[in-house]
Amino acid sequence: MKILEGKTLSASVLAETKSAAKKFEEIKSRKPSLKIINYYDNSASSVYMNLKIKKAAEIGIDAVEIKPPESGGKKEFLKILKNLAGDSLTDAIMVERPLPPGFDDWEFWKNMPSDKDPDCLSADNNAKLYLSKTYAEIEKGSFFSPCTALAAIKLAQYHGFSFSGKKAVVVGRSAVVGRPLAHMLTSLDATVTLCHSKTSDLRYYLKNADYIFLAIGKAKWLKKDMIGENQVVIDIGTNFDENGKMCGDADFEEIKQTAAAASPVPGGVGPVTLALLLKSSVTAAQKEGK
Ligand code: NAP
Fold it and tell me: If you measure from the C-alpha of residue 222 to the centroid of ligand 1, how many angstroms do you get, rounded to a whole number?
């Protein structure tokens, strides 16, 4: 089975981003700046926080974590967002999920400035994404696309896979991963089935797919008896197993017996996502008017 490792692609995106960040600093006499709002220390995405800040520093981006107290509620969150939106020294804003219970996502999305939004959280960037029909429009860079979905596609493409005319199953329908991924795969002319916890006969869809994208957040959920032969599995899940070891949504040791290719966790989609986030943060800094 071919292992779809993400470190090489990530390194090449980071090298390109480092040189763009250096040019920005030479012109502006300051580094591009990324602010990361993070409520919870132990969420799956925030376990990457130290790595994000370290990688950002290595390539010349000034990344700072902002940790609002949960007790400040939505009002405090929106205040922080508006301050960052109006701050000329903040180029990019990232918000780690989950947010505290009761937060209205729409309230957040409409207050997110689209030109400082490297991960496509704003209403404006989402509208542009879903109004794009072709992948070329999405890739052109006139708006920001969601980094994780983009990373999953780019990782498969980097390893020589293409989607036109193929059957792709995406498991997980979140607004930040599964849905945009399904839309992007459709723009690449795949025929996409978007599955979720209420999908009946999920195994039928899994067994008949050419590509299986997993974004459900359940450790080692996909077993070899759930899939067909010679499929490509792209695992976006970031979980921890019973021994505290990071793992994906697929049971890698099992599926490698039947899959044609699969991305590992760690070392697959994750490093590519991080590299694309940093790249988009530098792009945000480069936008005119800053
Ligand atoms: P989420 O918001 O919790 O959504 C999970 C989705 O999975 C939901 O649509 C849910 O269905 C579906 N689901 C849950 N259990 C299922 C089951 N047994 N069968 C079928 N569908 C099931 O999660 P998310 O934010 O999209 O994240 C998904 C995973 O990706 C997490 O592990 C997260 O840590 C990881 N992630 C990784 C990266 C990266 O760079 N690698 C970045 C972001 C997220 P319902 O809608 O019906 O509830």
Answer: 13
